[in-house]
Amino acid sequence: MTKAYKNLIGGVWKDSVSGKVRESINPADTSDVVGTVPDSTSTDVDEAVSAARAAYKSWRLVPAPKRGEILYRAAELLIKNKDELGRLATREMGKILPEGLGDVQEAIDMAYFMAGEGRRLEGQTVPSELVGKDCKSVREPIGVFALITPWNFPTAIPSWKLLPAIVSGNCVVFKPSSDTPVCATRLVEILMEAGVPEGVINMVHGSGSIVGAYLAGHHDIEGISFTGSSAVGEELVKSCAGLDKEISCEMGGKNPIIVMDDARLDLAIEGALWGAFGTTGQRCTAASRIIVHEKVYDRFIEGLAKAASKLKVGDGLKDGTEMGPLIHKIQMQKVLEYIEIGKKQGARLITGGRQLTEGDYAKGFFIEPTVFADVTPDMRIAREEIFGPVVSVIKAKDLTDAINIANDSDYGLSAAIFSQDVNNCATAERDLETGIVYINAPTIGAEIQLPFGGIKKTGTGHKEAGGRGGALDMFLHWKVIYRDFSGKLQKAQIEG
Ligand code: UN1
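^ Those are the sequences you sent over. The predicted structure of the assembly is below.
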């Protein structure tokens, strides 16, 4: 029997008023239905928003350390259930099991970190110009947020939004990706078990075009935090313009790795392989351009093609699998189209390039790890986000040329350099135009204690995750308080 998951509204697990459901399927084996979820409507969203609004009245007054303690318990529960949740992430999203477990680990890290934030959320106290007066700033919750998340990190990315939102004292309506709704539901179940009060987290399943769009434009929410495709993000920004809401969108990437002639080539190849094919290339941080110094170019492409062709592709739940399927047929077809575009525009396909269809592969959405060499920066495969196991290798003359190629992109999420020369590394660190820079490591693998996000077309609004400038800036505003205890009316700037 397929398990039927539900929406969560005001603490009650319930079906949509539509009575309809959607299936969530395993991308490695489409005969495996992971669960069904409600196919919700705007009426369900209205109900969820009013439940959040009602809960906000008391939740905002719960002391932040107490809110943090709930997250601490959630972290412990996530650890207890890590194996089940990791397997579920793999089954529902397709990433290989070590990565499914990593997805859950990122949520655990975030839960501990944000639990601690409950005891910080610090403001400032500064001296006043006047005697008998003090001045301070405090951080306050904002209200009700819409959280809209993608399928590629089905547990981690929801945790990046849910946990800072609620530790700050906000209430939320959460619309997870319709491709990974079961992972999202399990995360919410765990948060409720940890003690989140009814109505603080509400979850409405359904399509982005109906539920997501209606929720984002809802008159009774204060803000939207979205992670997903540039197309949807840009649409959201446009449709919310003038609505006076906080909006943060984390979108695409076209992340470069620079490989210098003084790099440890073995490390650079291993890094490129992990950056390009980890999560089947379906990370916004995935390395999709490898910019290689001409002196080591031939050796690099030979090494990368050899390593990529050896990757074991298959069901991520099977031991030894190194790369899983694409999330669904549409994404697989999009990636296959980009492979054709690469060939047509004159890039040299040096390994991969085909859909895998034999035997068990026929059950899912599998494409070979694909490497294009002799890509030029103007080709579409060097400019557009593919979100699949396809990597473009571009030749560069020197460091300046490599950095110019790297920066010649609409996106600016993550970039990397492999070099043993401290001056090259420091120059790249200074001049790469991205939100995240890695030295001798690939473009993936950000940790949650620092902000996550990019510049240019990658991101608008606030960043995600922890640290100064991270997600808390989205979910809290500053209030400044002046208290006069002099017993007389004092006039700032006039007397004193
Ligand atoms: C994403 O690709 O959408 O830095 C998130 C990383 C992961 C998160 C990626 N920690 O690759």
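The longest helix spans residues 97-117. The mean pLDDT is 97.

Shout if you want it in another format.
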